[in-house]
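<context>
A single protein, sequence plus fold
<entry> Chain with its tokenised backbone below
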Amino acid sequence: MKNRKFWQGFLTGGLSVLLCMLLVCAGLTVTGKIDIRNMIMKVSSGSILNKKLDSKMTELQAYIDQFFLDDIDREKVQDSICKGMVDGLGDVYAAYYNEEEYKDMKEKTSGNYCGIGAYVSQSATDGAITIVQPIKDSPAEKVGLKSGDIISEVNGKSVEGMDLTAVVSKMKGKAGTKVELTVLRDNHQKKFTITREEIHSQTVAYKMLDGKIGYIEVSSFEEVTKQQFRDALDDLEKQGEKSLVIDLRNNGGGLLSTAVDMLDRLLPEGIVVYTKDKDGKKEVYRSTDKESFDKPIAILVNENSASASEVFSGAMQDYNKAVLVGTTTFGKGIVQTVFDLSDGTAIKLTTAKYYTPKGRNIHGTGLEPDITEALNDQTHRQKKSGVLIDNQMQRAIDYLKNGK
């Protein structure tokens, strides 16, 4: 396909993490143009569609036209047929998007949107949609939504079996309007009524820690993240940082192009990630030799660090440019491609596996940290910076200070 690009990394991590308005830890995603009629003609002679099915659909339509009592929304029926065909693949990451859903999905990658303001993910095993982290000062945080809350209903309707993007679309709306979420927390249902707001996503936060150790927290890989990350790094460099902590905990992913850009800022020239499709065709993404970073780096990761976060962390680990500190990452090593259809709709399919520079595919296993440190309740504030430090951050700081 021409004009393809990786788009959301929705490297979704298993986390199909989209930002809602939210965000989804979604999956390596590519977009491309395709003619739906030509596609149907090709597929109809293959193993999915055949004359028997065509005959059955004609028979079904005849019964519906003659006996169905109410008026028929033919556009809705056609959308349902398309969705059903994709659902039948049994791939939790595959989806069909009608025109409105597709517009919503593309809007989210800009980093500015209107909704509740929370990062969400979708489980690769049971499809459950979970709040990864409410955005600071967002409507979601204000009403008390918490990391780990499982969304079961939106406006009183079950979201079981729904694609993450469709659920996010239901939570989206005009500023000032309300949406009701039902979540499961500790096996108990809780209902929240949330007033939507405009969300301007600040995906990067940074500060200088004691000992001239720079700290950059990246919450997702959106379009705006590229410049925010570079600005943060440049400012810390001007302040005289001696080493760096990059915090990717609970970062479910985002745009592959953003992860590659950030890696290009830190790594020498070389491969940062590559993909292979079902025919073994390889596509390679590289860093240039324009910029690099030669100071010690520790990257904080956990079980919610997925897709684009794993691409970034895996490349840094393979080049021995950083140590990973924390717990094993989510483990999403497959790529989704989004194809633009000729009528403004789109289809997303799993099309490839991705590999770190050293050829590791971490799907289902995740990245193992170089220094394993489970999070506990031990925290303290640094004397000079006043920053609250948890035990995983402290372990990263200890490594940067002592080299072990």
